[in-house]
Structure of Polysaccharide biosynthesis protein:
Amino acid sequence: MIKNYLINNSHKHASKWLVLLIDVVITIFNFFLAYIIRFGITLNFDTSNLIYQIPVVAALSALSFLLIGSYKGVVRHTGMRDAYNLFLAVTVLIALTGFLMVSSRLSLMPELLNIPVSIICIHYMLNIITLTTSRLIFKYCYYYVKSKIGESSRILIYGAGDSGLITLAAITNDSNRSSLSVVGFIDDNSQKIGKTINGIKVYSSKAVNNNFLTKNNIKEIIVSIPHISKKRLSEISDDLLKLPVKVKIIPAVNDWIDGKLKVSQIKEIEIEDLLDRAPINMDNQNIKRELDDKVIMITGAAGSIGSEIVRQASYYNYKNLILVDQAESPLYDLQQELLSKGITNFTPIVADIRDHQRVETIFEKYRPNMVFHAAAYKHVPLMEANPCEAIKINVLGTRKLADLSSQFGVDKFVFVSTDKAVNPTNVMGATKRVAEMYIKCLHKTSKTKFITTRFGNVLGSNGSVIPLFKKQIAKGGPLTVTHKDVTRFFMTIPEASQLVIEAGTMGNGGEIFIFDMGESVKIFDLAKKMIRLSDLRYPEDIDIKITGLRPGEKLYEELLADTENTLPTYHKKIMISRFDDNDCANVKDKIDDLCIMNLLNQDHQIVGKLKEIVPEYISNNSTFESIDKINKDTVQTKQEILA
């Protein structure tokens, strides 16, 4: 019965008038108690005065509480502010009773209301102690009964520092999450282990095991460590995810609502939290200077990287954003997003970058100062099966866009490339490498500064592995991994986009900027971690299926070709690739031939030409491996003839 009452009425609060009545009753009792303390239990004084004084004190106390509003606080969420209000109310009461005493001695009030100074002082101290204590007793009794009888989720907080205490306060004071009960803290600081904070014990992380969790009926662990590094969070989560509990995390301090942590912001830890990268700094003076009063064109503006470049560019004092994409619906969604933020100085344009006349019209009308070229076909297996389309967009489209940028005097052209362009094993990577080579050559004869940025996978981008795993987990599995040893670099979309913009601002033309991708991640381990994060077990609840490498797929990605090395820049996460210059006249002729050959839609002939332009392009797990075999046999035959 008590249990049901707690559940059904946990959201209700005691009436403020009831609280006022109780406070007045306590004040009256304290006034009587003050006389007992002063004159003894025998009440060795004229008690007839009390008959007149008590109603007056009751009226004055009610007036004091009404003036300060101390009765309005929710009792079970009593905090320092409530205690301060009680202190003010009691001080006002004592001031009024003191005024009453002085008035009676000056014969302005009846002699019966002459309250001794000692009684006023004792009454003051008793009120401060008992009123505050009554609030705290009710508060802790409520939560004790609720945790013992109500249906509460018993949790631990990882981190016994200031952030842990803030998390505890947020949980304790949140009326909407009355089902949470904090059992203890976890901390690695030996000076805190075994001690109590606010009556809650601090445990060592080594002491938290299956037996401990079962014994204490722990359901959740909240990681509450501010500014925690990705590596440290990953280490903690690896240990906690082995235990039968839900692991949650508080958001970064900057994301707290009005500077305060809300329980609703505490979320279950996700794989993005463990792979997260450096925070993005929008107050970048270099970018501000570069984009100030500029017309900026972004191709592929509705894509993962393109749309984030748009969002970040919109923070600065640009003149106009020209958003070009052939995908109508995603471009519309981006348009609505910008308008909802009050951003209006942009122009969405549905266009195909392969359409020379259409793109030329855009350049003629808007005269962009900077071009960020993010439009591309990027899915490796699809492009392996459709090499003609990959060349149309990634090579022909880039060539037309770069030529028009040069023709119309664009200041800077920033090309978004990929790590798959390094020692490519697939059509997609080879086409991006050809595009890199073309704009490198074009830079030598153009006033436009052509800049290339190269990086690996981005978290949450369209078609990336993490959204795929989430969908597979939602369907009950299995998760599909192409090879048990396959690894990939990961970067967040906001970080990659900011580095693209910043590389564009620092580039003088002709560079290939390489982004620091951190450590590579083993996809099989990533899959297992995502299963554990979903409160499932591998392989009991959900399995991982090895499907074999897809056409053109590598086991390991690279950011530098064999002939390249890097130079540092002022930005610790951006490096410049140095590589041997190509015979640009020869490269341009071959690319022209490739674009003409592409009209024939003969896949093997086209890929053969790609391999001629990019000698390091060796197909892997692909039907085009036969071309490599023919080329190898041809070279061997020539060597035998020469020998």
Notes: Confidence is low (pLDDT under 50) at residues 1-12. The first strand starts at residue 153 and ends at 158. The chain has 22 helices and 22 strands.
